[in-house]
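seq/struct pair 1
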Amino acid sequence: MRAGAFALVATLLLAAPARAHGPFHELIAAANERVAREPGNPAPLVARAELYRQHGDFEAALADLGEAARLAPNDDTVDLLRGRTLVDAHRPQLAMTFLDRYVARHPDEPAALLERARGHEAMAARQAAADDHERALLLLPHPTPDHYLRRMRAQLAAGRNEAALGGLDEAIARLGPIASLELPAIELELEAHRWAEALARLDRLAAQSPRKETFLARRGEILARAGRREEARRAFRAALEAVAALPPPLRTTAAVVELEAKLRQKLRAPRR
């Protein structure tokens, strides 16, 4: 595999950044053997650089990427890989030199925008990070909940709270009412004192769950924050009833015991 396929190798590495499996010394030994077996091929160097990056040996990774760039001078994908490695190495200013150059040439590549967003975040450039996340989400063909949550966090850091909530609704419409998306949406509704909207989201989650005690307790907390104290007490009592209906093995778990104690404490609190 020569320089023409280097971009494909790098793209696959960027698309699947999971940790390599197996002891590092065995993986690096195999990578060293392949580099020696295929002199002049940048792909083994890129693969070994990824192993070094995952292991935290950033200087070795950057050395391999530099050699890969020398072998494939017409393939600029190494800029993207260098940028990612430098962000991991806590050198975001230098990383941006490579990431900006790559994005300028490939403005519609979501992986590049996401990597540059990481660089902006490392430099506390919150507005620029949010911009890159928003652009990347428009371009990703199959975004995951994590992509949406990363955008949400960037938007919140940039003070774009309404955009963050709207983005979660977009994700829910596309992926369904997933708890990891609905729960932060509930928190944003509560921050804006939109009690009815928060309760509606909570009810959607509760409808999907066979166990109701946690949702009823949370419902009581929201009603209490909204000043609807009698309704809150009814929700807390309903949560206690749901706890009492659990089979003994579930009712005696630490989490349920703690929840029951918390509910009883709330019901003992004086009415105002």
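seq/struct pair 2
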Amino acid sequence: MRSKTLRLFCPLLLAAIAVSLAGCGSYIARRIAQAPNSYPDWIAPKARVELDFNSGFLTNFPVHYVKVGPPEARLRYRIVEPADYNVHVFTSNWIEDDEPQFTFTFTADIPGGSNLWTGNPRGTVILLHGYGVAQFAMAPWALRLAQEGWRCVLIDLRGHGKSTGKRIYFGLQETNDLSQLLDQLDHDGQLESPVDAVGESYGAVIALRAQATEPRLHTVVAINPYASLSNAIVNIRYDYAPWLPAVFVRAGIKKLPVLFGVSAADLDTSTAIARHPFPALFIAGAEDKVTPVAEVRKLRSLAAPGSEFIVVPRATHESLTYFFHDLAPPIGAWLANH
């Protein structure tokens, strides 16, 4: 097995390195919005979660690209068809420097054998990864949900992985990217209804925003989404870089709406849901320091009746997505029943 390291990548670190140039909120705002895949690996903090699987398995699923924009970008995606992949998950956890650490080991049979849904998918699930990682982060879920009959689409979001794009937009533009991806899938005869989205953190925010504007998107599973972008950034700074002066972070946050030409409220997921309430499954980690339970509960309170809310004990922001024993039954049931 080869490990894939999962990191919550923090662009504020680069801003700190350039702090002698800063004092300038606009500079820091541009760094926050800079494409994560344009930063060197050495600037990322030590990983708190490792996914242990042979990353070569992804080569069994051909790469596709779709052009999106404006602003122009090219997104990389893969399609995982329904099959019996015999997915199993093994978890190890320990404490290091007073912080919980996790290793998740995934085993599966690739290629998978035929099952009830092979050639006749129950629907399509778009899997949206978190900030600073790429489609590999949601690959275990693609195999698990495909095993349950769903055609799954893994995607590198704009500015992530092998996709292009100089800047990210925290969902302001990425929802349009998602609609254009659905257009391409539909054109290729690969968009089986119903169409659902499962996202983690940043990807969960994009899924929730898209639900409000994309009529083809039937339902959403949102794993640790943030209600307030500014709160999430401040929490990342506190959790990963407490040595970075808060004044610089807040200066960058203040300039983000100016950078994007929107109001500060427009950057918050809570605003998008309040404007267009809909039912969704919200999942929080009890030990999440980036998007605490209260943040996720706020989104649930704004959503339409019929929404559900789950809190997973012991789960941190980085590890929550891979608590399969806690999450697979309710997520599977939500997708099947909605």
